[in-house]
Amino acid sequence: MIRRIITLLTLLAAISSCKAQGNNNIKQNKTLERTTERFDTSTYYMERQGLEYQFEHYLRGKVRQFGGNNGSNYIEYSKKEKDLFGTYKEYYNKTGTLKLVGKYYYNDFDCGIWKEYDENGYLIDEYDQDAPYKNYPWEKVEKFVKEELKLDLFDKNVSIRRYVSDKTNIPVWVIHYKVGPNIVSIKINANTGEIIKKGINPIIK
Questions:
Q1: How many CB atoms lie within 10 A of CB 166?
Q2: From CA 187, how far away is CA 130, in angstroms rounded?
Q3: Beta partners for 164?
Q4: Using the 8-state DSSP alphabet, how is residue 73 labeled?
């Protein structure tokens, strides 16, 4: 009987050890992600005009870089002409290594998975900018704007932004577009997809 108990305890300890080791490996694997990407400071300082450097890249489209003065980090925005979304990158000033990378909608909001790295290039944080809007995601907003409102998302008179209300904690989409001398504003509850508010205001000159 005692031998059976000892055997059982030994087996449980082994299983617990394996489980703990498995969890540690999962955690370790997450932190093992590393980037070797660095900011090209030599080209930046040699080519920039004034406080920024702009150029065309065959993969990234139009690239705009700035920063680096007084110890500030380097910032880069890149977006192809026919794309609604671009890429944001931030690099550490001292090491030039990538600090932050993520996607943004060309009008006014961040989206998708954003990743943050330490100065040695190791991943330290990852967050989903789309999480609060999963019940009414971008795809539904895009469909609404194109099919219901009959608007062109590339039109400079059309803007879309989103935020989580400080008062109600409700995620909200806000669509603005110009009609003649007026601005139409539509606010959508991203939890339900219902239009919370629609208003028309004259353009103030």
A1: 6
A2: 17
A3: 171
A4: P
> If you count them, how many residues does the chain have?
205
d(CA 40, CA 89): 13
> What is the dihedral sign for C-alpha 76, 77, 80, 85?
positive
Is residue 104 a contact partner of residue 85, using CB atoms and an 8 Å limit? Answer: yes
pLDDT (tens digit, 0 to 9) for every residue of the chain, 205 residues total? 444 444 444 444 444 444 444 444 434 445 589 999 999 999 999 999 999 999 999 999 999 999 999 999 999 999 999 999 999 999 999 999 999 999 999 978 999 999 999 999 999 999 999 999 999 999 999 999 999 999 999 999 999 999 999 999 999 999 999 999 999 999 999 999 999 999 999 887 7
- Contact in structure between 104 and 112 (CB atoms under 8 Å): no
Phi, psi of 92 (to 5 degrees): -65, 140
- The answer to whether 107 and 86 are in contact (CB under 8 A) is no
**Nearest 5°: CA angle at 108, between 65 and 99?**
45
Whether 129 contacts 110, CB under 8 Å: yes
- How many CB atoms sit inside 10 A of residue 175's CB? 21
- pTM strictly above 0.85: no
Tokens 């103030």 belong to residue: 204
